[in-house]
Design a protein that fits this description.
Strand order of the largest sheet: 6-5-4-7-10
Structural class: alpha/beta
Number of strands: 15
Radius of gyration: 22 Å
Strand content: 15-25%
Largest sheet: 5 strands, mixed
CATH topology of the largest domain: Nucleotidyltransferase, domain 5
Length: about 375
């Protein structure tokens, strides 16, 4: 096993080689040892050692040789997405969504519980319990790890340090609470950050190294991917640009909230209603100020728009692009998330996956 190697530097090198092999095999149907060695830049012998260890850990499986052909076929290997399962939980203002996925992020089971932003701590935690119990009752799988997404600033131990959006949510120790419900590791992170992570895994940003994700809805948030990695910052507060009143993110949804209840302001804007178009334009101007600040700071390849309002991207994207053109030296490509309301929970599962991958490769 990898953890049995003597010497910290050598052990770390073997871990890095194993990660490189896993990342490469994830992107291919199957590879021979020779093909994999060329892709990851190792000798064939070293690659064989890495693959043997990954076979023992269950991350890799051997593919049955194709029928026919002359001579003994070369052995081929692929990433074993079915080796384990992940749980992703999105604890939001209007829903708690729990998903069970395989190691490639394919959703196998889901359970949704409707909540309201006005709910207190006890009721929202009870809804979380119901969602988790519901999805695991239907799944009956070997659960490796769990990721939980929530609004607010989250510390490294899984406690909500600050939440403006949900009453009584500041101070909730989500990691400890969910750990009572599931086996394996439980990791908690901000929902906007995890939505950004989901886009690089199953969404529109799979090949982007640097991106800004914008959670666009009645609450606005941002997640940052830099060099292919989720960027958290020193105190896990990276991307919290909406805390600046001058940015206008807290004010932005108010332009839309005045629209009559039960009527779709975006549909009205789409139909040419002047009042609706004015409200949407004001919303976009406030949204664009914060997006422009992030773009000017990071110079990302992509800006990805997700969240509830992304369903009305046809009336948002062009005004947003025009605003970014005004403020940015270079306007990046703007894409709309295709993950609908599963993106945050998928990002939570990916967060659990990344942690489990690191953990599995160093344990004995």
């Amino acid at each position: 096993m990898i953890a049995h190697l003597a010497g910290g530097d050598l052990s770390r090198l073997r871990q890095l080689n194993a990660h490189s092999a896993i990342r490469t095999l994830r992107d291919e149907p199957a590879l021979t040892l020779t093909e994999l060695a060329k892709r990851i830049g190792l000798s064939r012998a070293s690659t064989e050692d890495v693959v043997r260890e990954l076979l023992d850990l269950g991350w890799v499986t051997e593919v049955e040789p194709a029928a026919g052909g002359v001579g003994r076929p070369a052995r081929r290997y692929r990433f074993n997405a079915g080796a384990g399962h992940l749980l992703g939980v999105d604890v939001g203002g209007h829903k708690v969504l729990a998903l069970v996925t395989d190691l490639d992020g394919v959703v196998l089971h889901s359970h949704r519980v409707t909540v309201t932003p006005e709910m207190g701590r006890r009721e929202r935690l009870a809804a979380t319990d119901e969602a988790v119990a519901g999805v695991l009752r239907g799944a009956k799988v070997d659960l490796w790890a769990t990721g939980v997404a929530t609004t607010g600033l989250v510390d490294g131990a899984g406690k909500v340090l600050l939440s403006d959006a949900l009453p009584e949510w500041t101070g909730v120790d989500l990691a400890t609470h969910v750990s009572r419900l599931v086996p394996g590791r439980v990791l908690v992170e901000n929902d906007s950050k995890l939505a950004a992570l989901a886009e690089t895994w199953r969404g529109v940003a799979r090949y982007a190294s640097d991106l800004v994700f914008i959670l666009s809805g009645w609450r606005t948030g941002a997640g940052l991917i830099i060099g292919g990695q989720l960027h958290r910052g020193f105190a896990n507060a990276a991307g919290e640009i909406g805390a600046l009143p001058a940015i206008g993110w807290k004010r932005a949804p108010e332009h839309l909230a005045a629209w009559p209840s039960g009527s779709d302001i975006f549909a009205a804007a789409r139909a040419g209603d002047r009042a609706a178009l004015t409200a949407v334009r004001r919303y976009v101007k406030d949204l664009a100020l914060g997006v422009s600040a992030l773009v000017l700071t990071l110079d990302p390849e992509l800006v990805v728009i997700g969240g509830g309002f992304s369903r009305s991207a046809d009336v948002l994207i062009e005004p947003l692009r025009r605003e970014l053109d005004r403020w940015c030296l270079r306007t990046p490509e703007i894409r709309v998330s295709t993950l609908a309301d599963e993106g945050v929970a998928l990002g939570a599962a990916k967060h659990a996956m990344d942690s489990e991958e690191r953990f599995s490769l160093i344990r004995g």
